[in-house]
Design goal:
The protein is of the alpha/beta class. The protein has 19 helices and 31 strands. It is globular and about 75 Å long. The structure holds adenosine-5'-monophosphate-propyl ester.
Amino acid sequence: MSYYKIDSLEQYFKHYNKSIREPRKFWGKIAEENFTWYQQWEKVVDFNMAEADVKWFVDAKVNIVKNAIDRHLARRGNKTAIIFEPNNPDEPALHITYNELHQRVCKMANVLRAQGIAKGDRVCIYLPMIPELAVAVLACARIGAIHSVVFAGFSAAALATRINDSDCKMVVTSDGGFRGNKTIGLKSIVDEALQSCPSVKSVLVAKRTNDEISMHADRDIWLQPLLDEASDNNVAEIMDAEDPLFILYTSGSTGKPKGMVHTTAGYMVYTAYTFKNVFNYEENDIFWCTADIGWITGHSYILYGPLLNGATTVMFEGVPSHPDFSRFWEVIEKHRVTHFYTAPTAIRALAKENIDYIQPYPLKSLKVIGSVGEPINEEAWHWYNDHVGGKRCPLVDTWWQTETGGIMISPLAFITPTKPTYASLPLPGIQPVLMDEKRNEIEGNQVTGSLCIKFPWPAIARTIWGNHQRYKDTYFSTFPGKYFTGDGALRDEVGYYRITGRVDDVVIVSGHNLGTAPIEDAINEHPAVAESAIVGFPHDIKGNALYGYIILKETGESRDRNNLANEINMMISHQIGPIAKLDKIQFVNGLPKTRSGKIMRRILRKIAEGDFSNFGDISTLLNPEIVEEIKDGRI
Ligand code: PRX
């Protein structure tokens, strides 16, 4: 019996039970039957949750790109692997076959090696959503270099922090990128970042916008001429199962981003398995995930998951609003997309627009629609289900995280009955538990608590780059022995999970995970600012937006508040990126603090939400009078 594909609800329960009772047999069989290995494992899993130590397929040898590309060539060489849909609808789409992708990745792998990149080196990839991005990622993985993709919307300062944290030896970028009607000068952002990145020895530059850029002699090299010269014969590196595959940064509750490290074999097995089952992907389907490859969703479900299954995956350079709000629907029709996977924030933005943008598009090619990145509210769920899914496509609300590598809780398309706003049931191998404030596991149904996972799964991140202690502290110490997700959840009467949102200092804005601490750090650098506190508040389209409470220094008191607010947002944009700008800024004389000096964010959150009821006990505050004052000045 094979466990790779689940065909019915009954079978789901069977596989699920098997995966819990005998995880080693379950994952061992999946790994053995569906991938090619240079060498088999000694042990399927080895772990010590208290030490945050997890290993899968111990001592196995494998290359993920051999599995994602080479393995398919005999049967699917002429099948389209990637459909590239450019930002400008008048520019022709590209269909890259598995043969062509193989050739391009091999050439790029040879270029990287010729530039001195070897197994274990870190390569930062800062590219727009163009084929070179996919090729660079896969080429790194082919030669065992650790890719660190930084979303091309991040600022120079944010890019520099990420490059320095993992001592990247090379940056792969482009002259610029197109997004809607904007052109973004990526190379100049890289130039600025590299003023403070001594580890970077070379920069490979792809051409996209043809804008004039400056090339630094001895450091910057145009990519295309190197590729033109390179051989397409490349021997992939033999990787250990636990060799790092990539680093991807995510926000934390302290200023520094966390470089989550994913390793090779477990990530490969889990992304392939979840892609196949959650989306119920069949051979000739066309899968489109609208995320950027700069986020985990793009890593796992634009690239690795689909390619490991020999699928056709769409890579879209543009935005849903350009040239108008029918772009998504137009692309679905154009490429006969069968699977569409997007974020609630995009759905809310599109639902707000005139229905005439979607109505002319029958969208009959669609079979499955999916949601990811934040809780999907009831209204958005129904709009998506009715207008995009035509009430006939299962809507899979997939809950997971950068740290989890792949989808953890989700309906399986055509198998699990869906329920609006519920991510529903855990995937095989995933053991969610809800914990109460006293750190006890909450049994039974119709309960809420902090969501933890009590057994390792193959794609769990193994560490934070350069800081295992922080990894342990962040994820394994709140509830000792368990992985703490940072999310709260509800389990309904039949055991379905609904994710209610973050329970820590991370705010999800338009599906982007933003830590409040780094934003506060950026604001506090403004010479007129003494202190600040950021909280999230509900927003119709973005899900959450940011509300900043700011205390000015005496020198700032006389300044024009609007100018200051603009300057502060510019600083945030510069330090982090425009996605972290504040929607509302309230200048205050103080912040509610406990006697130990901790800001009481709970109260600030309530004020930002406009909910003045029940602040709870504020008598323990150092300065209870400030609460009234802030409340009265709310904007
Ligand atoms: O709060 C959860 C929310 O997004 C967080 C993870 O963010 P990130 O690491 O950027 O990864 C996003 C893409 C996987 C989670 O802790 N989240 C993600 N998916 C859902 C969700 N919240 C509710 N429902 C979801 N389907």
